[in-house]
Amino acid sequence: MTEQFEKGLAIRRQVMGDEFVDRAFEQATEFTMDLQHYITDVCWGGIWGREGLTKRDRSLINLAMLTALNRSQELRGHVRGAINNGVTVEEIKEVMLQTAVYCGAPAAQEGFRIAKEVLEDMNALK
């Protein structure tokens, strides 16, 4: 593995958690393993590993983009990752409200629903 892959793997584990990352690699098949390597190397090592934004900032951006794109499965993981990166529940709520204006109410409703499920699972809601 390359140095960038190793860096990406460490960041991916820090943000998403060991259980999530282990499951992603364990569930990968011969057909899908190259994608796991690509995501870890390019996305996590190449982009998340850059110094231009904090991991916290990247998490906030991801929440908005994944809500806008209606990528529910990825949003679930990144809500958890945002909490791991120090984003507050209040800030997640504000991102979802912001998406209502720029992405439409249906996208925001789905984003709120998914965020609520994950936050409840993490015991992060009062």
Automatic annotation (TrEMBL):
It is an enzyme of class 4 (lyase). Keywords: Lyase. Its EC number is 4.1.1.44. It holds the Pfam family CMD. The keyword Lyase applies. Residues 34-117 form the Carboxymuconolactone decarboxylase-like domain. GO terms for molecular function: 4-carboxymuconolactone decarboxylase activity. InterPro entries: 4CMD/NDH-1_regulator, AhpD-like, CMD-like, Decarb_PcaC. It comes from the Bacteria. Gene3D superfamilies: AhpD-like (1.20.1290.10). NCBIfam families: decarb_PcaC. This is 4-carboxymuconolactone decarboxylase. The lineage of its organism: Bacteria, Bacillati, Bacillota, Bacilli, Bacillales.
